[in-house]
Every structure is written in C-alpha cells, then in structure tokens.
Amino acid sequence: MTLNESVPAALPVVERPINDVVVDVPTGRRARRGDDGMLGLGLLAGPANVIMQLARPAVGYGVLESRVESGRVDRHPIKRARTTFTYLAVSTNGTPEQQKAFRRAVNGAHAQVFSTDESPVKYHAFDKDLQLWVGACLYKGVVDVHRLFVGEMDEETADRVYVQGRALATMLQVPESMWPADREAFDRYWAASLDEVHIDDTVREYLYPIAASRLRGLRLPGPLQRRNEELALLITTGFLPQRFRDEMRLPWGPDHQRRFDRLMKVLRVANTVSPKFVRQFPFNLLLKDVDRRIRTGRPLV
C-alpha cells in the first residue's frame, strides 16, 4: 500500500498516514471544529507520545541519562508533563513573547543534555534531526487525538493544523526548511524515520512504568493498582502505532482494540457535549501560567 492510498476504516486511527484521504465535513461542524485547538483529552496520548519520541535511541538515552534532574519523567512525572504540555500550548497557540521566553528556557535545559564517552549512543539535545523527530511525534499525536475525539478534518483544516504543527519543531533549532513541505512529504519522512526506531532493554525498562502510568512514590492497594495499570496500558498501547507496540513488547489484538474503541467512543461523546473551556483544559490554563511565571520570574521548565 502506498502512502497516498486510503486506509480501510477498520484500521486504528494511529495506523493511518497523515495525508490519508479525509472525509467531507459538513460546514456546520467544520466551524465548531475550527476552535478546538489543543484538546485536554490529548493528555491520554501523552505516555504513548513519550514512547514514540524515545524510540529513537539517541533521544531515549538523552532522556534516560539526562543531567537535568527536574526534567526527568521517571522522577518528576507531573512536572515533566506540565513542561511538555506547556510546550505544546505555547508553540502552537502562544504569543511571540511566550514563545521567546519558553524557547530560551528549554534551550537552557537542553544545553546540559549531551552524551559522554560511556553513553551507548551519541546524542546532543541541540541535534536538529532529533528535534525534528520529536516535533514530528508531537504533531502526529495532535492529529491522532483530533481524529479520535473531534473527527475527520477537511483539507483546509488539515492543512491549517499542519502549518501550526510545524512550530512543534521550529520553535527550537529546527529550521523551517527541514520540516516536510506538506502532509504527503511528512508521510514519506515518517516512513523513512521508522527505520531508525529501536527500543533496547534498558530504554524499554525505563519506559514501561510510563506506559503503565506508575507514579514514583504512589501505589494504590493491590487490586486497584492492577486495574489502574491495566487501563493505562490499554490507553497507551492503543495510541501507539504497531511498530512501537512491537518495540515495547506490548500485546495487542482484536479484543484490546474493541475495548480501546469503546472507551474512546465514550470519551468522544463527553468531549462533544463539553463547553470549549472544558475541552481545552488544561492547555488554556497553562498559557496563563506561562504569563504568571514570566511576570514573577519563576522557572518555565
């Protein structure tokens, strides 16, 4: 199957190319969808997106060996999540002042992330190719979330979201010329980049608690902990394309897909009937938090 061929509807959303043929969206619904921005339900896809990013060995070991203690997702998951989601909000919907301040803060943290002679792979957080990969993963996550919880985009909306998504990479060191020219070019980039995906035992062990949403220092009573991890693994694995499931050795079959689809359907209905400020929470508040931190001199990352 080529990248431009339509994918059967039975396939999960996350398996579909970005440039897949979109359905015609009625005009009335199109106007409603145009104001959705970042959806709060996208937080559910966060662990899967982290796995996708870290599936490139240089990114995985860059995070695993990071000297930035406060940014380690395994030790400070809530703070790391706040930083990542704020980056999403600022890069796509922030003001130029917010973007400039956040870029400076992230660059300060990235300056401390580079490999040593003992590192299994060579990496540096200022590597433009690695930053492009991370931005591409974030953009793909935005599209997958939109398809699941809002619905298909018409061509105009898909192109607009693609232009906005470019900032997920270019807000840092990635020049605009490196971002694929259009959605079809993005699919070619994504397919080629999958050849560089590999999760070894060390990174897999690091990522599994993230997939299961285990919070350091917090453990529920036995049965509740198991149920919570089962649900988290279902959601995380459901948002992962099959290549990443295989690398993580996470099982997936028809029963898993049906359970995932049922859960997403319930959440989609809840999202549809929610008011705009609820749909966009917490991204709307994170942008206000950036202004507050800039004003008071508090760290942004």
UniProtKB/TrEMBL annotation:
Pfam families, per this entry?
Answer: MPAB_Lcp_cat
MF terms in GO: oxidoreductase activity
Q: Which domain of life is it from?
A: Bacteria
Transmembrane residue ranges: none
ER-bound oxygenase mpaB/mpaB'/Rubber oxygenase catalytic domain segment(s): 40-268
The record, for InterPro entries, names:
MPAB/Lcp_cat_dom
The protein in question is named ER-bound oxygenase mpaB/mpaB'/Rubber oxygenase catalytic domain-containing protein
